[in-house]
Amino acid sequence: MSDATRTSEPSPEDALRSARLLARAEAAVMALFATRVYELGWTVRSKLSGMLDHVTLSCDAGHSTQVTPVTALHPKLGSTIVRAETGGAFLLPTGLTKVAAFPKALEECEHCARKRWEEAARASFTAYAIETDLRILADAASPHGYPAKEVRCLHGHEFTITAMNPRTPGRMPGCTYGFTTGFDGAGDPCVTCLGITQTPKLVEFRRRAREQNVMILDVMSDRIAQTVRLCCVAGHLTSAAINTGLKRELLCARCGGAGVRPEPTVYYVVTDGAVVKPGISSGDGRGRLDTHRSQHGLGQIRRLITDLPVGAARDVERHVLDCLAGQGIRPTMGWEYFDAAHIDRVLELADGWFAANLPNFPWTVTA
Questions:
Q1: Sorting pLDDT into bands at 50, 70 and 90, what band is 269?
Q2: What CA dihedral angle connects 183, 187, 188 and 189, to 10 degrees?
């Protein structure tokens, strides 16, 4: 094939064929969007025109939202598609991750889903009380604005609990509704009983630390799931959850010959435009960032501070998460994945901590 053939302009037939293919592709996206809207119970309140045009949706309760069809189906893909200047064609960047890897943004109405969960949780609270040996004494007021009950446990301890079953699937009540139980309602709902059962393990952990000449560097709480930093007589700096440490022959994993995760010395904040995740790592942090990029699409690095003093990474992470929780900002997934609408607050908290605690430490703010 000659160079002239390679660089020749497309024929009218090729241009017509390309336009038809683009029209079919856009029609397929619109059909998939309409199906997704119907499955989730939304009603389309505006005209469906193009896959890059905004569409207004509403649920049966009247809650509304605005989305573009392609972004609603694939947020990362939708943010990279633009119309070509000539019209009718769409431009994509090179090296785009496969479409199947992108999460779907359009979900059922959050307000309605939360209401249904609350109704189911309230309806099953009586069964939860019987299952956990709680006697319901009277109605009470919840500080979170939900119905509560005064109850008495099997050992005679009286306390107030939110009148919803924390084991109802689909939520993380321990984060949202202030339950005293652990993840997904596991554990004893009575704080007093929980403390009584955990106290012997806390005492045993302190006793073994004294016997093995291990210094506990953090203030211990009343939770055996707490992770504390340790320094053994050989000078090894490690960390261990109290409950996990009790299962070892030696509290110091290095002295026991076991591999141990290095102490975090990196603090980072990454986002994809829809989700923001602050976190900590060790080394240069690149391994952890590559994992976030490949598994969750979090490829925008907003902060990356390395070579921190021992303990600083955990301290800034604890400060940011505690402040967010205190301001009512809850994670959308896990413990550290937040809506990107809060990214400025996350950065402000981290920057404020560094300014107050490590004012002379060199680090770079990334865009």
A1: very high
A2: 20
